[in-house]
Design goal:
heterodimer; A: ten-stranded mixed beta sheet; B: six-stranded mixed beta sheet; 10 helices; 10 strands; binds adenosine-5'-triphosphate; binds magnesium ion
Chain lengths: 506, 251
């Protein structure tokens, strides 16, 4: 790439980000008119599970599947091994089902919208009209999508509010819809693959999700098809005291390819909100999936009040030979992050890659990393993790690399870099390595450094203010991961890095 | 333009006085050179003027166009038109040289209330200036100063200076490490920037640079002060005889 396109593309990305947002706005309209406010009673029990299933018009087998998960969940206890510190979550004090708010609760004008939220949108380069749409201002104009080739499924609170480009995707044979629609329309695929990567019994949060997931996205790419556009889901938690439990299932059939983007935002609340999603990727022979996340849930305020508790189970199963997966994540939000996107490298010569930026500022706590489970011969994995801690935040990288006895001639390379801003934050690296054959090799490199004063001074002497200088240096530190992101997200991710580090210096 | 008056500077962390009553004035449009033995405080002066942490001004003042620099943040000094070409340019891993330049240019424009440059405008200007300094497009893409040779780093400083168009340019040993051709390029770059409302303070050990960039005044610095000022012939005298006589004279 020449330097010309390099810069031009950046500008292009900005526009595209804006247009994603615009796309979302257009769904919002339909949803206002059709759906009034609707909460299930607080707490979770078999009736609530049945109610969720009923609301989604699910067939009996699905209801049973949920109930089975729920019964199992009741016998389980919350895991405590992560390096996280948070008050007991009262699972009965949450709403498990909420539909978007009704009209009368919507802000009537921008004046009624939290200025900090608006400031965030503004910094993301989102024009005023889109800000209004995003903030849910009544009557905000809904601009039509302008030929942007990213199909979007937007999930607000518990409900998928719409999917774009469905027809165009259908022509290619790609199914992209909400999971509740898939359960109704494509039961054979859902029955075959749901829970096949993350079983119901997998872990406390995944089991809860299996019981109460309300919606999410579903993708099926048929054999030999290269998905003609990026697919994207935009999650947003709006309602207060509401847990969000989405379920995403992506199946890449033999020789297919798909790139999937997941974006998340949540408004500022001073109570904590629970988010426990499950993402399952099934990748068959010679297929490839790229899954990118830019997670910007509300992280809590400067005093550590509020924010999302993010307990997510994401796993890819490279089920057959030469299957390939690449996880890229930019985690800047959430009060608590508990997340380990994993790769099961079952097929011979399958490949898993994990690129991660985790930023923790103020009182945020992040415990994140990956698991690379090498089961097949000649499998390859690569982990690049960049952890940035500022304020009083704690950032832990936890990574597991296992080479099973049959995974001969396999390789893993792990590079794990931590950057500290200030002297009240912490970075921890916890690698677990198990190699059970003699022909495989695991390499692990870890570094911890502080933001370099000379670099900051150099930037400032050229006119950048301190925050700009920190953002630039930190973006440089993250470069390898930012480059792994699809263009649609690269710019947004860079801005997020800057925004999430605000107030971390000086 | 630049006025330094009886400047006393010590290290913040140690009780070590480095500048001991330095006074100097560079009028608009002039080029002044500072020469002086190693450790006399030349780089310290340049750092203090541009606002680096770690120094304490115990007495005196330094001002740009009558406005004291000492209370300003480094970026405010930059926006006011001060620029330092570093003796040891800093490497910034992962940050493209072009991104760095563009962020800097736009930050200064913003601080001055001017419109940011579009990517097309920016590219056009940076390409032109890079070409004049024989900086390859490949170097523009690489992370800032990473793996640049000594001479490339110095040329890159001059590229930044050319892009930022400061009014007061301080160059700390920009000529050290340059080959003969690079020296000519850099000098041409500097001479092209000379104008009635732009001034230069050129720190150097070698008279050779001053053949290319004709100074109006040459100052000799030793032990934290200016011990002698004169015309270009002073540089020749240093080149021929060293500092011995001048230092003795000052004592
Ligand atoms: N941070 C510091 N800690 C200790 N000593 C310092 C520090 N900074 C500067 N000095 C000392 O102050 C004196 C002046 O240093 P400075 O770098 O300004 O000299 P200079 O005139 O630029 O020398 P040169 O010609 O070698 O570049 C030196 O003796 C140096 O060791
Ligand atoms: Mg020096």
């Amino acid at each position: 790439m020449t330097e010309a396109t390099d810069l031009d593309v950046r500008e292009g990305v900005d526009r595209e980000t804006v247009e994603t947002v615009r796309n979302m706005g257009s769904y919002k309209y339909g949803w206002d008119t059709e759906i009034e406010m609707d909460y299930a009673p607080k707490g979770v029990n078999e009736d609530i599970v049945r109610l969720i299933s009923e609301k989604n018009n699910e067939p009996e087998w699905m209801t049973e599947w949920r109930l089975e998960a729920f019964r199992r969940w009741q016998t389980m206890t919350e895991p405590k091994w992560a390096m996280l510190n948070y008050p007991e979550i009262d699972f009965q004090d949450q709403y498990y089902y909420a539909r978007p708010k009704s009209m009368e609760e919507k802000p009537k004008s921008l004046d009624e919208v939290d200025p900090k939220l608006l400031a965030t949108y503004e910094k993301l380069g989102i024009p005023l009209k889109e800000q209004m749409i995003l903030a849910g201002v009544e009557g905000a104009d809904e601009a039509p999508a302008e030929g942007r080739k990213v199909a979007v499924d937007a999930v607000f609170d518990s409900v998928s509010v719409g999917t774009t480009f469905k027809d165009e995707l259908a022509k290619a044979g790609v199914i992209f819809c909400s999971i509740s629609e898939a359960i109704r329309e494509h039961p054979e695929l859902v029955k075959k693959y749901l829970g096949s990567v993350v079983p119901q019994s997998d872990n406390y949060f995944a089991t809860l999700n299996s019981a109460v997931f309300s919606d999410g996205s579903f993708v099926y790419v048929p054999p030999g098809v290269r998905c003609p556009m990026e697919l994207s889901t935009y999650f947003r938690i709006n309602a207060e005291n509401t847990g969000q439990f989405e379920r995403t299932l992506i199946i890449a059939d033999k020789g297919s390819y798909v790139s999937y983007l997941e974006g998340c935002t949540a408004p500022q609340r001073d109570t904590n909100q629970l988010h426990a999603a499950v993402v399952e990727l099934v990748i068959l022979e010679d297929a490839e999936v790229k899954y990118s996340t830019v997670q910007n849930w509300f992280p809590g305020d400067e005093e550590g009040k509020g924010g999302i508790y993010n307990f997510v189970t994401k796993r890819a199963d490279c089920r057959e030979a030469r299957a390939k997966v690449m996880w890229t994540q930019v985690e800047t939000g959430s009060a608590i992050t508990w997340k380990y996107p994993s790769c099961i490298l079952r097929g011979d010569e399958s490949q898993g890659e994990f690129y991660s930026i985790a930023i923790a500022n103020n009182f945020q706590q992040a415990d994140t990393g990956t698991k690379m489970i090498h089961l097949g011969k000649n499998t390859r994995s690569r982990i690049v993790s960049k952890g940035i801690s500022a304020g009083k935040a704690q950032n832990t990288y936890r990574g597991l690399v296992t080479m099973h006895p049959k995974a001969t001639n396999s390789r893993n390379y792990t590079q794990c870099d931590s950057l500290l801003i200030g002297d009240q934050c912490g970075a921890h690296t916890v690698p677990y390595i198990e190699v059970k054959n003699t022909s495989s090799r695991v390499e692990h490199e870890a570094t911890t450094s502080k933001v370099d004063d000379d670099q900051l001074f150099y930037c400032r002497s050229r006119g950048m203010d301190e925050e700009e200088a920190v953002a630039l240096v930190v973006n440089g530190f993250c470069r390898e991961v930012l480059q792994a992101l699809p263009m649609e997200f690269a710019m947004e991710a860079q801005s997020l890095v800057a925004i999430s580090l605000e107030g971390s210096v000086g | 333009m630049l006025k330094i008056d009886n400047l006393h500077v010590k290290l913040e962390e140690e009780d070590k006085q480095i500048l001991k009553g330095l006074s100097l004035e560079v009028p608009a449009g002039q080029v002044h050179a500072i020469m002086g033995p190693n450790g006399s405080g030349k780089s310290t002066l340049s750092y203090v003027l541009s606002g680096r942490d770690g120094y304490e001004v115990t007495e005196g003042d330094a001002s740009l166009d009558g406005e004291s620099l000492l209370e300003m943040e480094p970026e405010e000094r930059a926006a006011a038109g001060l620029f330092l070409a570093f003796q040891y340019p800093v490497e910034i891993p992962g940050v493209g040289n072009m991104t760095f330049l563009r962020t800097a240019v736009n930050a200064q424009r913003k601080a001055r209330g001017e419109e940011e440059l579009s990517s097309a405008e920016f590219l056009k200007i940076v390409r032109e200036k890079a070409k004049e300094l024989q900086i390859s497009p490949e170097m523009l893409k690489r992370p800032v100063n990473m793996g640049f040779s000594g001479g490339e780093k110095k040329r890159n400083e001059i590229l930044q200076m050319a892009m930022l168009e400061p009014r007061m340019c301080i160059m700390d040993e920009t000529d050290s490490g340059l080959d003969v051709d690079a020296m000519r390029l850099v000098s041409e770059g500097v001479n092209a920037l000379r104008s009635p409302d732009r001034s230069f303070l050129v720190i150097t050990h070698y008279q050779r640079l001053l053949n290319h960039i004709q100074p109006d005044v040459v100052h000799i610095m030793s032990n934290g002060r200016i011990i002698k000022s004169g015309g270009p012939e002073l540089a020749l005298e240093v080149e021929e005889n060293g500092y011995g006589d001048l230092l003795a004279e000052a004592d």
